[in-house]
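Format notes (please read before filing issues)

Several people have asked whether sequences and structure tokens are stored in separate files. They are not. Every record keeps both together, in the order shown below: the sequence lines, then the token lines. Line labels are part of the format and must not be stripped during preprocessing.
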Amino acid sequence: MDKLKAVVSGEEARRDDRTILQTVDEASTLGWGTRVKGFIGCFVVGGACTILGVCMLFLPKIGLTLFIVFYTFGNICALCSTMFLMGPLKQLKRMCDKTRALATTIMITCLVLTLCAAFWWKNFGLALLFCILQILSFTWYSLSYIPFVRDAIMRMVAVCLK
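Then the structure lines:
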């Protein structure tokens, strides 16, 4: 019966004109309360993983590996938490904006290189370096959402270097 109503009202023709991304975006719409709960849940999991990773750092032998895994997973969860507020498609578009493209690329590259250095190359000094770069790039990326903050920081650094 719903199919018949869609054909008669002309909605069926409009459904055929949509792209795959529009269909996925429409199918993944959540209510505002659900979005906020998803954001909070994902952000809390990310924060807990980050704190747990820092606590694991002090374990002998395996501590550094656990720190890298938990810290990177925490950053990924924190990044994904904002997808609940904006929606995945809009978040990905905003991540690739002109003002954020470089920060996004560096941040994702550092996430991947941290895990590669820890597990594939088994070079923990390099993994710690990438983890520090992860912190800096994630901070720079996050600041891009606050108007004029990055410009103010750049001016402050320029004044301090003179």
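For reference, the curators noted about this record: The mean pLDDT is 84. The radius of gyration is 21 Å.
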